[in-house]
Amino acid sequence: MYSQIGLVLGSNMARSDSGLIDLSLPISNIEMALHDYAYHPCRGLEQLQSTILSLQKISQSSITHGLYHQRLNSFTAAVDELLLSGSPYFTHYHSALLSAADALLQVAMAGQFSVDRSRQLDGLLSGERSCWALVTSIANEKGSPLEYRNYEARLDSVQSNAMSVDDYLEVFASVGRVSFQLDSIQSSCVNGRFLLISVQSLSWLKRRFPLLQWQVLSVNDKEPLRDLCELSFLPLFQNITMPRESRYRLLDLFEDRFKALFYQPFGSFFSSSLSHVHQTDRLVPSMDNITTFEQDTGLVYFPVCHGGYVYIGAQALGGGAETSYIKYLGCDYLSYFLYEIETSFGRFVFDQKECLGRYNVELSDVFLEEEAFWFEPEQGVRAKILLSMPLVAPQYAAFCPLLEAISQVFVVKQGMFYFALPYTFFREVEAACSMMTVPRSWVKNIWLSQTDVPLLEPWLLSGNMLPHLSRCPEKNKSTYPSKNGYYFGRVYGRMFWIEADLLLALLPYKESSLVVHFEGDELRLMPLFTHHGRSFDKVMTRESLSEDSNTSVDKVAFSVILEWMSESVVLPFASCEWSITLGASHCVREFSSPSDELMSGEGIKSQLAAMQEGDFVVDKKNYLSFVAAFWPPSSLA
């Protein structure tokens, strides 16, 4: 291909002054992308996709050859399909893409001179050529993911000192899901194992990384598509470097494919004879065991997304304040359009599927009943007017709007209840819902915008009460071996030793957002930390560890996320190191939950400040008591 490209490239560049389109840059980019595909499959395919879309755009007006555009569309679809399938590398795929790209470029060159000249090259576009047969086959493989495998690659630092652990992790992250199991450190020599889930073949991995000792642990039949979407959608949704056209093309492919494979209408869970089911056409995550669902004609059923997870909600027919989440359906990781409104308490968002609309109101439209004000936007719809909110944005000086001053309200439905929110600003935004370990009573959902800004959807039902959960979401159980040793470092002046198996992520320090919410009649300031589509509200603050918030401490360098037994916390480390053994001379291992009279912030601080001596040690045995001591109660679920 390269020699052929060179010939036509020289001809084209020589004639670019004659008004012909200069294809030298697309040719060069395609050549580099196909070369990169052999070493970095995902990166090479992404570059190839972007360049082919550019070629498609610039050749639309200059080339009228119908078969050329048909083959170009097949080539683009094949690249899209390979990206969706995890970017596998195979030698026969590479050869087919090289031959097909060569044919397209030669026809594009000839087409700039005359239609007849391009027709002379029709043989290059013939469907009988093996390259086009394979490209078309790849493009038509809808919903047929390749086989994922669990690999182990042993690192011996003496033999493979050309690349560091971080270098390997960076490369492996582009070909699958990877973690590193540290076995030992002797002087400066690191020994351990990389655990990789990937569609790449063992032969490719051995050829690409010959200094590692490879073996296949198992075949992953069910890992691929759902996890691929969950891991890929948000980074793609928030990608600001990819060309807009390429990005939206991939997002549309993701959404169409995964809604077809992993979502189903809410009404399909229920018998056709059951009449009290709301939003029957709304797509929700699909479940295989719907036959085990026991249905009750005395309940009203509706879909609910709370904390990023979707449930079947239920309420007694004919009213009643109590709501139950009777079945967990899964997490919803696609993007949706929301309505954002500004109130006197801040800006908040609501899912468009749960919004009735905007209404102008006059004082005569409002009536008082059961010590609350109500508004009827439509026949049979009663919406409670909210003059206070459970959430307050810290930058707003919140005040309760006077009833006489309200001129427009936004009507929202949560569960089977309607609420009318006075507002002054309205717009449409697109966002993806972040995940929380369990639902919280202070927020319904935390959405993430395309610029990774958290958008809050308030929980309007029953104050601080959560619906009854028949079953919490089950966390994916890791197939990786346990991590060894301890991570240790200073947190606002106190030394913490953390059992390595509790570590979910070790990140460069990222400052938390602040959220104000009501606990009873009190306003509480809460830090909110987001990372890779997940939200965490248990964040260690300086005030938790020191009676004097102005105490000079080391500059924070890392954000460390811990997770165990569905409880997640974030610790800000000034430094972070690893040790195979516990090195503290005197350790604090016991953490007791504060009594009711010590539940205030000052009470908790006094109790923890009493532990003056020793380093805090957190392991699986005391992790839940540690969480309960610093963030009482330990869970709102």
From TrEMBL:
It comes from the Bacteria. This is Uncharacterized protein.
